[in-house]
C-alpha cells in the first residue's frame, strides 16, 4: 500500500520491460475504485482512451520511450473509502508511428448516426 493525504499529488511511472528500443508506451486508461475486483460499479475515471477525465491529471516528458510518467491529485473519492485501487491500461506502439494511438493521444470515439 501507498499512503497519501487528500489533495496530495500522486506521481506514477509505468515502465515497459523490453529490449526493443523502437517501442513507445502510452497511458490509455486509468481508473480508481474502492473494490480491487470491480472497476465498473463504483469507479472514477482519471484518464479514458487517452483523454484526461480528471482536471489534475498531467503527463510528464520522459527521455526514454519505455516510460510513461503522470500524476493526479488525491481527490475526495479517496477520502470516502479506506482503500482505493488503481487499474491502468497502457498501449505499446512502434516508435515513430505517428498514426498510432501513442502519438494521436486523446481519442474519443465518434458516435454513429442512428437515423434511417
TrEMBL record:
The lineage is: Eukaryota, Metazoa, Chordata, Craniata, Vertebrata
Question: Which top-level group of life is the source organism from?
Answer: Eukaryota
| Annotated keywords | Disulfide bond, Glycoprotein, Signal
Q: Which PROSITE patterns match?
A: ZP_2
InterPro entries (UniProt xref):
ZP-C (IPR055355), ZP-C_dom (IPR042235), ZP_chr (IPR048290), ZP_dom (IPR001507)
Quote the protein name from its UniProt record.
Answer: DMBT1 protein
By its UniProt entry, which Gene3D superfamilies does this protein fall under?
Zona pellucida, ZP-C domain
ZP domain location is 1-109
Signal: is it a keyword of this entry? yes
- Gene symbol here is Dmbt1_3
Amino acid at each position: 500500500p501507498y499512503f497519501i493525504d487528500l489533495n496530495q499529488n500522486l506521481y506514477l511511472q509505468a515502465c515497459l520491460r523490453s529490449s526493443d528500443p523502437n517501442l513507445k508506451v502510452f497511458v490509455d486508461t486509468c481508473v480508481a475504485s474502492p473494490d480491487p475486483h470491480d472497476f465498473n460499479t463504483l469507479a472514477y475515471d482519471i484518464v479514458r482512451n487517452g483523454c484526461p477525465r480528471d482536471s489534475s491529471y498531467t503527463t510528464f516528458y520522459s527521455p526514454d520511450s519505455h516510460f510513461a510518467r503522470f500524476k493526479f491529485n488525491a481527490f475526495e473519492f479517496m477520502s470516502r473509502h479506506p482503500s482505493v485501487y488503481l487499474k491502468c491500461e497502457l498501449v505499446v506502439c512502434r516508435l515513430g508511428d505517428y498514426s498510432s494511438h501513442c502519438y494521436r493521444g486523446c481519442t474519443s470515439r465518434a458516435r454513429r448516426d442512428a437515423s434511417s
